[in-house]
């Protein structure tokens, strides 16, 4: 059991469990943002915040490599995790300007955090264990995310939304502590390469980005913005919102590590194709869902797809990068990740449960 809960790589343990603790707080609160403002009679504000958040992450993604080259991935993970805590406090205040200010700060921190995380994970992995390490990270991170959603659902039933949100903040400080214990990556600081993503000319790389990062991100954008509201509308239960949303992160706990190991031995292509097909089936199930059973079927399918696509997204970055362009390739993947995520949230906001899932299917097939 111990071997399944801990990796032999101490830095991987600290990175994975640090993100689990951080996103017990951040992930759960963001998952309830649309129901939170819906309960206040501000139905569009939750979507606007998610669009602004991911838009800021997209724009800040262009400056993220500079900070990684200047200060290193480990240090930037610590700094941006602290910024996450400050931002989330601002986002749950009653003042609209403070809420939007916190959202912008969270977006900037998010771009640097996820670029740093991807860069760090690739840096501490080798070719023979890249899929397995990615699967381990996704599984542990997913447990934290799921646990936060599940616990927060019950706290909201007992307390108010805001009080429950503040209670969840305690976990994030544990994540900051673990990040501070990680080693720095050798040879990362002072990198002379100042190229940007605009210098990339590889068609193979761009195709890999579209079939991994973009598809996984648009799926995540739909799930984080539209699915909680869809479940709330059908069931009228915050607990069920938490339980079904948590499934999206619990299933990777069971599947991500074996899937990652399988891809290390057998290649990423077939695994990616299976993930995309399951994604399409899950979105179609949600499009048809008008009962709790339909919602469960859709969420099971999308959870399995998440368990496949997320570790592949990280592993493929390592497959395609070298020590000279690692930060650049990571930056490209994160950029398209947030293009997809913003698009997923916008589709949920504009088209709602009637059409957003169907349109997402057409976009994925087109890509």
Question: How helix-rich are the residues, as a percent range?
Answer: over 70%
Q: Which runs of at least 5 residues are low in confidence (pLDDT < 50)?
A: 192-203
Report strand %: under 5%
Run of helices and strands = HHHHHHHHHHHHHH
Largest sheet at a glance?
none
Radius of gyration: 19 Å
Describe the structure.
This protein is mostly helical. Helices cover 83% and strands 0% of the residues. The chain contains 14 helices and no strands. The longest helix is centred in the C-terminal third of the chain and has 41 residues, at 326-366. The radius of gyration is 19 Å and the shape is globular. The termini are far apart. Mean pLDDT is 82; it is low at 192-203.
Observed structural traits:
367 residues; 14 helices; globular; mainly alpha; single chain
Outline:
The chain is mainly α and 367 residues long. Helices cover 83% and strands 0% of the residues. Helix 3 packs parallel to helix 10 and helix 10 (203-235) runs antiparallel to helix 11.
Topology, element by element:
Blueprint: H1 2-5, H2 10-31, H3 33-39, H4 45-60, H5 64-71, H6 73-91, H7 96-123, H8 130-158, H9 161-181, H10 203-235, H11 238-266, H12 269-288, H13 292-320, H14 326-366
């Amino acid at each position: 059991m111990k071997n399944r809960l801990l990796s032999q790589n101490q830095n991987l343990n600290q990175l994975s469990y640090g993100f689990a603790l951080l996103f017990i707080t951040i992930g759960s609160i963001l998952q309830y943002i649309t129901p939170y403002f819906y309960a206040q009679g501000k139905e569009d504000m939750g979507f606007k915040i998610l669009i602004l958040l991911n838009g800021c992450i997209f724009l800040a993604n262009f400056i993220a490599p500079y900070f990684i080259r200047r200060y290193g991935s480990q240090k930037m993970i610590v700094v941006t995790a602290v910024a996450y805590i400050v931002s989330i406090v601002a986002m749950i205040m009653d003042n609209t300007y403070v809420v939007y200010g916190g959202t912008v700060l969270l977006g900037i921190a998010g771009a640097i955090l996820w670029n740093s995380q991807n860069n760090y994970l690739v840096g501490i992995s080798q070719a023979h264990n890249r899929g397995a390490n990615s699967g381990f990270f996704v599984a542990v991170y997913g447990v934290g995310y799921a646990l936060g959603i599940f616990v927060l659902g019950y706290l909201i039933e007992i307390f108010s939304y805001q009080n429950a949100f503040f209670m969840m903040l305690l976990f994030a400080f544990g994540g900051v502590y673990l990040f501070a214990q990680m080693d720095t990556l050798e040879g990362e600081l002072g990198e002379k390469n100042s190229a940007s993503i605009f210098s990339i000319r590889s068609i193979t790389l761009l195709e890999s980005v579209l079939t991994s990062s973009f598809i996984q991100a648009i799926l995540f954008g739909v799930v984080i913005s539209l699915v909680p509201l869809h479940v709330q509308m059908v069931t009228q239960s915050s607990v069920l919102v938490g339980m079904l949303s948590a499934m999206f992160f619990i299933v990777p706990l069971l599947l991500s590590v074996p899937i990652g190991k399988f891809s290390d031995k057998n290649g990423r292509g077939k695994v990616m194709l299976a993930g995309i097909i399951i994604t399409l089936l899950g979105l179609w199930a949600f499009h048809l869902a008008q009962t709790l059973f339909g919602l469960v079927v859709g969420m099971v399918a999308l959870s399995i797809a998440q368990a496949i696509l997320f570790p592949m997204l990280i592993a493929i970055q390592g497959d395609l990068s070298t020590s000279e362009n690692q930060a650049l390739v990571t930056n490209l993947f994160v950029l398209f990740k947030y293009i997809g995520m913003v698009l997923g949230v916008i589709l949920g906001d504009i088209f709602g449960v009637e059409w957003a899932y169907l349109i997402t299917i057409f976009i994925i097939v087109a890509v």
